[in-house]
Amino acid sequence: MQTLKPAAIPPQSDSVQSTPFDTDSFNQVVMSTYARFPLALEKGAGCRVWDTQGREYLDFVAGIATCTLGHAHPVLIEAVTKQIQKLHHVSNLYYIPEQGELAKWIVEHSCSDRVFFCNSGAEANEAAIKLARKYAHTVLQIDKPIILTAHASFHGRTLATVTATGQPKYQKYFDPLVPGFHYVPYNDIAAIEAAISELDEGDYRVAAILIEPLQGEGGVRPGDVAYFQKLRKICDEIGILLIFDEVQVGMGRSGKLWGYEHLGVEPDIFTSAKALGGGIPIGAMMSKSFCDVFQPGEHASTFGGNPFACGVALSVCQTLERENILQNVQDRGEQLRDGLRAIAAKYPHIITEVRGWGLINGMELQASIQLTAADIVKAAMDEGLLLVPAGPKVIRFVPPLIVTEKEVETALQTLEKAIATVTA
Ligand SMILES: *Cc1c(COP(=O)(O)O)cnc(C)c1O
């Protein structure tokens, strides 16, 4: 039985605008790094958000797999309020009790022994890359360590993580990239074996594999169980590190707390960010004690693990557990996939596949037709449903983890209407 608390009804806004949001003024002063939809959001409650003109949307984006408890959840409001009144930021010059408590929760609820806190997914992956490199130099005696990553992966936008990201479109113009990365096709064990033997030359050797248990941005592609078990075996045999990027799939989104639980293997190092704070910026890198080789001064973050972010994230973690939200993720995920498959069956010439775990799901469109995921996302937005593409041909569904049966039903009906409109 779900005991999910209803989100507070938002107060009637006195700022509802009669004219559309002035995107031109915005674009004059904000760098154009994003191709934004012409929509300005102002408030939210539960799985619903409202734009500046008071129009309501069902939010199946959740800040891109981030707002696990939805918007304006009473737990978030209380945690944020309490922590800001107590202490919000000091420095890692001192012990921070909330940081220790959050780390303890993560360690007790995962295969990890230690945690490093930062502020985003890219930073968590940077920390993992640095830890793997130090482990390579000091334990594996590799002079030029190579980290293998997958084609169509996504690991972030900093220079090292965009290099790790196996998608040339994100790297264009930013070369020279960071050395020490090599790419292999996802879910292809022969390619990994070949790369490891080919790269064992001179000072260069493979030191780690960095991979998503389910590729999110690259098209919502779940990892193959046999592939991941073989990866684990290879890493154990030659002593290299297996690193999982759980930034999008972790913290309950998959219906289990961590994506690796679907694959029956444990990583040596893994990262989390998006869902960890329920929308408050926080990132974390977890490791087993054997590969925790950092010494004081070797890695740091000014904001990382501050009382505010850790206090709020701890409340989010405890709420996931206390309210048995993972059960809701599994149930609503099944309902959503069943509904998406029913729609796919009606449009076989347009939709090729529905796939995912828990509440991270993708619907893939035929490669041979002109219609893109963005076309359907736009049509759904016009009908009052927010969705996000994962690549040109996949529509991604990542609602808050507290989404209700009724909301999933509404989303499915709205999506079907949108598909009918764009294909008419
Ligand atoms: C979003 C994402 C990142 C990057 O996270 P940021 O917080 O944007 O830096 C890294 N890895 C995966 C798998 C992601 O989905």
Give a written overview of the molecule.
The protein is α/β, with parallel strands linked by helices. The protein contains twelve helices and 17 strands. The chain has helices at residues 23-29, 62-65, 74-86, 97-108, 121-140, 159-164, 189-198, 225-238, 307-322, 325-346, 373-382, 405-423; strands at 41-45, 48-51, 56-59, 114-118, 144-150, 181-184, 204-211, 214-215, 221-222, 241-245, 269-272, 283-287, 351-357, 360-365, 385-386, 388-389, 394-397. The strands form four sheets. The protein has a seven-stranded mixed β-sheet, with helices on both faces. A hairpin with a 2-residue loop joins strand 13 and strand 14. Helix 3 (74-86) runs antiparallel to helix 9 (307-322) and helix 11 crosses helix 12 (405-423). The longest helix has 22 residues, at 325-346. The radius of gyration is 22 Å and the shape is globular. The protein binds pyridoxal-5'-phosphate (PLP). Pyridoxal-5'-phosphate binds at residues 120-122, 125, 154-156, 212, 216-217, 245, 247-248, 273-274. This is Acetylornithine aminotransferase. It is found in: Cytoplasm.
Low-confidence stretches: none
Total beta-strand segments: 17
- Strand % is 15-25%
Largest sheet: 7 strands, mixed
Question: What gross morphology would you assign?
Answer: globular
Unique bound compounds: pyridoxal-5'-phosphate
The helix content, as a percent range, equals 25-40%
The helix/strand series, from N terminus to C terminus, equals: HEEEHHHEHEHEHEEEHEEEHHEEHEEEH
Task: Assign the structural class, choosing from mainly alpha, mainly beta, alpha/beta, alpha+beta, or little secondary structure.
Answer: alpha/beta
What gyration radius follows from the Cα positions, in whole Å?
22 Å
Overall pLDDT score: 96
Trace the largest sheet across and list its strands: 4-12-11-10-7-5-6
How far is the first residue's CA from the last residue's CA?
Answer: 41 Å
Per DSSP, the total helix count is: 12
